[in-house]
Amino acid sequence: MAVIEARGIRKAFGTTVALDGVDLRVEEGRIVGLIGPNGAGKTTALNTILGLSQYEGQLTVLGCDPWTARAQLMRDVAYIADVAVLPRWIRVSQLLDYAGGVHPRFDRAKAEGFLARTAIKGTAKVRELSKGMVTQLHLALVMAVDARLLVLDEPTLGLDILYRKQFYDSLLNDYFDRSRTILVTTHQVEEIQDVLTDVVFINRGRIVFGSSMEQFESRYLEVVVRPDHLAAARALRPIHERQMLGKSILLVDLQLGGADHQQLAALGEVRTPSLADLFVAVMEGQGATP
Amino acid sequence: MKSIVWSVRRELWENRSIYVAPLIAAAVIVLGMFVVMLSGRHARPDQIAVNFEIAAGALMGTTLIVAIFYCLDALYGERRDRSVLFWKSMPVSDWTAVLSKMAVPLVVLPVVTFVISVVTQLIMLLMSSAILSAKGHSAAALWTLPWLRMTSGLLYHLVTVHSLYSAPIFGWLLLVSAWAKRLPFLWAFLPLAAIGLIEKIALNTTHFAAMLGSRISGMEGDPAKGSVMMMLWPAHPLEFFTRPGLWIGLVIAATCVAAAVRLRRYRDPI
Fold first, then answer.
1. A101 contacts chain B (CB < 8 A)
2. How close, in Å, is residue A267 to chain B by CA atoms?
3. How far apart are CA B178 and CA B123, in angstroms?
4. Which candidate in B14, B88, B89, B261 is best for mutational testing of the A interface (most A CBs within 10 A)?
5. What is the tens place of the pLDDT at every residue in B198-251?
């Protein structure tokens, strides 16, 4: 069964269309990255999935309509909207008390175990913690919930690199297993490339690309072409071309049928592209960036 | 049920003024009475008895102010600091969240007022007896006051006037708190002032202002109006429940709460 099944989701704020017919299917046990430029509709899409925002179209999350059944859905869904939403006045121990009180799937001992590895004290108030520590606290809280779907909206925004790395490490090592599903949006495409099992690009309220990471790696190749081979390489219909240190780097979609690995290897050094490069190629194809 | 108890508890964690403010007021009252009695004025027992009324009245005034500020911030503050996104990530419905906030002025504050008033009056009784006997007067007149009727009357007054009769005011404040994008205080009071002003200009009457004033002060709903011992248990306690004003007010309160629930669901953080 699909954890998230969205068909033709539309959402407009006045005359601004935030979601323009989003189709999205997320299977159980996947880690899906939802990636898009600013204003593409990432947060709006997550808000509809979390029952925070009304929408037109068909959407089921774990078999529920999130808008009408938010409170019930939140037993099985955990989310971090962004790092700054924990109430600043609350004490860490009160936060654990409250979560234990209202959440049937919250395991307090587990949360305390995660917190014991950090410098966060139970008596501290959220306002006394650094930004990185607040994220650690929130992550400890959601990882202690036995949820089927975890949604993270820019969870590492504004954090330094140590916390960012640690964040995804604990998520993978301490939380993720094949029965859970994670949906994450981020700007920092590079740092989640190795974490994801699936990737979805969103632009101007539409899903413009979706693939599993295995498919992505077998479908796209990047070739670093010397100037004398450039004309031959361009004949293979690359989907994107950029210059770096006097060399041309061409991104080729093998499914377009214009080239195979051997042909490319004859033209220059062949490598797997980064997700960020494909993202730029797809977005420029869409006319999203100048 | 469990989640509403935890939701109310978290309101107390966040808003410690709910019990700190009346405690400070009680301390000031007791200290003030101590100073006045030592200075020798109000030494007669019947004059001292009035102080017990004043103490209860001052505590009610304090908790009313706390209730007004609490309601105005209850659904506004959580949107302004975006913590509403965290609260909504918990399996707690908007109904539970809003009702637990409405329970603070309707249940928690009257109970707090009652308990602190009774304890304050007890301390005042012991203190004035001690001072009277130290000065060689008899304190017997204080102990023969109708304490049971006064205490039960205080509870009755709090439940009827400060909770049930004031419910539409708290409902309105919560509604504004759920709706306003800024300045909830202004949005809560300007429309009321405007209605009063329009009535005055158009009809040259002041019914709305009078109605509002009596509801806030509790005088219109107070069955024991006019009696010296305002907080005595009334002669006809059930008469209160036959007033149309009470039921109209409760319907308005319920409508405001339902609208606040809907707004909490639809409104984005500010």
1. yes
2. 52
3. 41
4. B89
5. 998 888 888 888 888 777 766 554 444 444 445 667 777 788 888 888 899 999
Domain range annotation of chain B: 2-266
Cβ contact B88–A52 (<8 Å): yes
d(CA A136, CA A166): 9
For B127-184, the pLDDT digits (tens) are 888 888 888 777 787 888 888 888 888 888 888 888 998 999 999 999 999 999 999 9
Chain B residues in contact with A90 by the CB 8 A cut-off are: 10, 13-14
Query: Per the CB < 8 Å rule, is B94 touching A79?
Result: no
CB contact under 8 A, A87 and B89: no
CB contact under 8 A, B85 and A104: no
Amino acid present at A216: F
pLDDT level of residue A103 (50, 70, 90 thresholds): very high
- Whether residue A71 lies within 8 A of chain B, CB to CB, comes out as yes
| Number of other CB atoms surrounding residue B61 within 10 Å | 14
pLDDT category of residue A39 using cuts at 50, 70 and 90: confident
Two tokens, residue A40:
């593409």
DSSP, residue by residue, chain B: -HHHHHHHHHHHHH-THHHHHHHHHHHHHHHHHHHHHHTTTT-SHHHHHHHHHHHHHHHHHHHHHHHHHHHHHHTTHHHHTSTHHHHTTSS--HHHHHHHHHHIIIIIHHHHHHHHHHHHHHHHHHHHHHHHHHTT---HHHHTS-HHHHHHHHHHHIIIIIIIITHHHHHHHHHHHHH-SS-HHHHHHHHHHHHHHHHHHHHS--HHHHHHHHHHHTTTT-TTTT-SSTTSPPS-GGGGGG-HHHHHHHHHHHHHHHHHHHHHHHPPP-
Q: What is the pTM of this model?
A: 0.88
Domain positions in chain A are: 2-204, 215-286
Q: Do A86 and B13 touch (CB under 8 A)?
A: no
Q: How far is B171 from chain A (nearest CA, A)?
A: 23
**Residue from the list A88, A94, A102 with its beta carbon closest to the beta carbon of B92:** A102
Q: Say what percent of chain B tops pLDDT 70.
A: 91
- A79 CB within 8 Å of a chain B CB: yes
For residue A145, pLDDT over 70 is answered with yes
* Interval A212-245: pLDDT, tens: 998 888 888 888 888 888 888 887 788 888 888 8
DSSP codes joined into one string, B85-109: HHHTTSS--HHHHHHHHHHIIIIIH
A residues 39-58 near B, CB within 8 Å? 50, 52-54
CATH node for A2-204: 3.40.50.300
Q: If you count residue pairs, one on A and one on B, with CB atoms under 8 Å apart, how many are there?
A: 75
Write down the ipTM of this complex: 0.87
